Amino acid sequence: MKAKKATIIQSNYIPWKGYFDMINAADVFVVYDEMQYTKNDWRNRNIIKTPNGTQWLTIPVVVSGKFGQKINETETFKNVWRKKHWKTIVQNYGKTPFFPMYKEVFEEAYLGTTETNLSHINVQFIKIINELLGIQTEIILSKELSFAGDRNQRLIEILNTLKATTYISGPAAKSYMDMHLFSKNNIEVEWANYSGYPEYQQKYLPFEHGVTILDLLFNEGPNAPKFMKSF
Description:
This protein has 231 residues and is an alpha/beta fold. The chain has helices spanning 17-25, 80-93, 99-111, 118-133, 151-161, 179-184, 213-220, and strands at 5-9, 28-31, 45-50, 53-58, 61-62, 75-76, 138-141, 166-169, 188-191. Strands 7-2-1-8-9 form a 5-stranded parallel β-sheet. It has a two-stranded antiparallel sheet with strand order 3-4. Strands 5-6 form a two-stranded antiparallel ribbon.
């Protein structure tokens, strides 16, 4: 029986290519949005390239101030950001080689809905991008699962529920993961490696790897997976 690989990641807004490499390397991707929302993080913002360097696209959100507001409880502040973000994307990517190929699908994603839940917005974009890249990994929302304990125990419970034998994790988790606990539960840990990505024909120099994957799609189109590591 083939070992089941899982990755458990908080939802990000139009994430970079490394995020999608983790999803593609797994059999199951758990959207881990039962966690506390954090300000100034990737949950509601990402980076694009412009003629003047990099620029943040940030979705304004309502932070209630109550302790422990979850990511999947976070709502956007009105919907004006949709038109602003789409206008900025058109201005900076409208003349890239493959923008016309993807224009309709992303225009609809930005302007064709009034969704205000941040998690739902993020997952919508992730699903669209998965389809464009040919990623077929199963997506499960963490709210559909039952788990408790500290952050290591919660991961273990999710992985055991999924009958996963391998956990794919980002390298930043090395600072807190209890490797003995994973070993005790017969779960192997694979660390995502973000080094060694090849450069592609990015419109504006100098080249920058750490931008939204929309940059790769608009510049390379169907060839985008060739510049990733999991394909």
